[in-house]
Amino acid sequence: MLEAIRAMGKAFGDSHGCVVCHGGTPGAETKEEAHRRGSPAALAAVGPTKFYPDPGSMTVAHRTCGMCHPSHPYRLERACPL
Ligand code: HEC
Ligand code: HEC
User: Fold this and answer.
1) What's the rounded Cα separation, in Å, for the pair 15 and 79?
2) Which residue of 4, 51, 62, 67 pairs with 24 in a disulfide if CB–CB is 3.0 to 4.6 A?
3) Which of 50, 65, 48, 60 is nearest to 5 (CA)?
4) Is 9 inside a domain boundary?
5) How would you write the pLDDT of the chain (82 residues) with one tens digit per residue?
6) Which ligand 2 atom sits closest to the C-alpha of 3?
7) How many Å lie between the centroid of ligand 1 and the Cα of residue 21?
């Protein structure tokens, strides 16, 4: 999974791959710039549309984990309460 994330991140200017799940601005040198609203345009078309502090949130999982694991958001939404 790490290899897939790094390869995808590299395509968007972030060889560590953080942008794949968190969105934001690759190459930024300050926290404010890195976390400003928005993501690389080509990524925003399929994945994170802006900086997500918690990429696992049900509100955005289809744009993060769900890019590679389409059934993951589906299962999250249908999890039974304990
Ligand atoms: C596979 C998707 C994914 C990738 C890639 C990813 N993260 Fe995360 N990150 C998450 C998720 C999901 C959470 C929320 C975890 C939680 O709430 O327990 C998170 C949380 C965080 C947090 C908050 C931790 C806290 O305790 O509040 C930081 C900081 C962070 N990530 C930094 C990074 C950095 C830096 C990178 C790149 C090296 C990165 N992440 C790559 C999914 C990812
Ligand atoms: C860039 C694509 C990508 C993203 C984004 C991604 N994954 Fe993965 N994930 C993979 C790949 C590739 C594997 C390895 C699949 C395999 O070995 O068959 C994997 C494996 C896994 C596995 C192990 C599954 C198993 O059957 O052993 C889990 C659990 C998982 N990912 C959860 C997540 C979660 C949760 C997120 C979001 C926070 C996430 N993944 C985001 C690509 C990704």
Assistant:
1) 33
2) 51
3) 65
4) yes
5) 999 999 999 999 999 999 999 999 999 999 999 998 789 999 999 999 999 999 999 999 999 999 999 998 988 888 777 6
6) 12
7) 8
